[in-house]
Write a structure and sequence with these properties.
single chain; 150 residues; mainly alpha; 73% helix; 0% strand; globular
């Protein structure tokens, strides 16, 4: 299976999973970018380890846990720097777009990103990549929380 077909399969699987769990409201998040799809997919997988009667409850419990502990300490995808490096390379364009978008619209995000990506730390550093991805996971998780609680 080539990369495009694999991507389409994963996207279709995730969309179907959202629909079957009454989370169709999150489809617009998935469709924003490949990066968003990746984050939602990982959140859905990780949420299976959390308490709750429904996937929505489990997902919200995971997001609350992320709020208190940070994505880097919560998400298995961000535990190791080499995993973060792989994600960063695969989604480099989407990450760049996301950072630019957040920088333009959100003063808090701008301050966080400026702190993480200082002049002396380039985005080739594994530690920095890990921190940037942690922030992005947290930010997208917060967007999902707002949607689910609305």
């Amino acid at each position: 299976m080539d990369k495009q077909n694999e991507y389409n399969y994963q996207k279709d699987e995730l969309l179907s999973r959202l629909e079957s769990n009454n989370l169709g409201i999150l489809i617009n998040v998935v469709l924003k970018s490949d990066l968003h799809k990746k984050v939602v997919f990982e959140l859905m997988n990780e949420s299976e380890l959390y308490e709750g009667e429904t996937i929505k409850e489990k997902l919200l419990n995971l997001i609350f846990f992320i709020e208190g502990n940070g994505a880097i300490n919560t998400m298995s995808e961000l535990t190791h720097y080499n995993d973060s490096d792989k994600i960063f390379e695969l989604y480099r364009s989407d990450i760049s777009d996301y950072i630019y978008e957040k920088d333009e619209q959100d003063g808090y995000a701008k301050d966080v990103l400026r702190h993480i990506i200082s002049d002396d730390m380039l985005l080739t550093d594994s530690y920095t990549r890990n921190r940037v991805l942690g922030f992005i996971f947290e930010s997208i998780a917060d967007d999902i929380k707002v949607i689910l609680e609305y």
